[in-house]
Amino acid sequence: MPIAEAGFQGPAGGPDPLALIRQGPTLQVVVSRAPVSPQGAPPSGLAVGQPVQSPPASPMMRVVQGLVDTGAVESCIDSALALAMQLPVVDRVLVSGAAGPSLHDVYAAIVLVPSLGIPIAGRFAGVHLKRGNQQHEVLLGRTFLQSTVMVYDGRRGHVMLASASMLGGAFAFAFPSTTFPQPGGTPLSAAIPPGLPASSDPSSSADSGATPDGEPGV
After folding, report:
1. What b/e string do you get for 106-119 counting C-beta neighbours within 10 Å, with b at 16 or more?
2. Which residues of 64-81 are buried (b: 16+ CB within 10 A; e: fewer)?
3. CA–centroid distance for 210 within its chain
4. What is the DSSP string of the chain?
5. N or C terminus: which one in the chain shows less Cβ crowding within 10 Å?
């Protein structure tokens, strides 16, 4: 069963509850520029619920950090990332955020969470994450979470997600204690697949707790 850890490693090698508070649950995601319909056709060759360790390398892909955001209805991408990847604009919508409603371009893309094998194909509003000094370039909203089961253990600094399609009946989470890859505020999700360019510095100390201008709230 694919299970992903969305917490952070502390200096002593264990979980870091304070980093989880500052930065929020974080997963590594792959954003790709692919021909999809404005309605969002499923990507071919991707089986929901099956972990993907090494997506094919392509200049049309970027590996970025995604914030698991229960306050967002839809999943969104950073507007600067969308422009850099030349993602096609398919619409323009009014998005409500902490600063009030504003118009945002909507881009066609595929967002894949490799550690869970969950692809999201279709429309993503472009919001100003990097402009707000946030390290994340994708927001994984409640439409993403409806395909998962999540356990948030704030006391110990663990956040575990599993693909709901693979759970079936009864299930139980066992929080690991020895799966931390490296220190420095690194997300405890799947490592960057070989051959894919990382578009941001994962060691950024910027706070991701503040709501960006234009982040969807409703």
Report:
1. bbbbbbbbbbbbbb
2. bbbbbbebbebbbbbbeb
3. 16
4. --EEE-SBB-TTSSB-HHHHHHH-SEEEEEEE-----TT-PPPTT--TTS--S-PPP-TTEEEEEEEE-TT-SS-EEEHHHHHHTTPPEEEEEEEEETTEEEEEEEEEEEEEETTTTEEEEEEEEEE-TGGGT-S-SEEE-HHHHTTEEEEEETTTTEEEEEEGGGT-S-------SS----SSS-BSSPPPPTTPPB-S-TT------SPPTT----
5. C
Dist CA 62 CA 78 (whole Å) = 12
For the segment 1-11, what is each residue's pLDDT rounded down to a tens digit?
578 999 998 88
Structural domains of the chain, ranges and CATH numbers in brackets = 3-38+60-166 (2.40.70.10)
What is the pTM (predicted TM-score) of this model? 0.69
Q: Is the pLDDT reported for residue 89 higher than 90?
A: yes
Strand partners, 107: 89, 124
Virtual torsion, Cα 139, 141, 144, 147, nearest 10 deg: 140
Q: Record the tokens describing residue 100, joined without a space.
A: 């009030």
Q: Record the tokens describing residue 47, joined without a space.
A: 């089986």
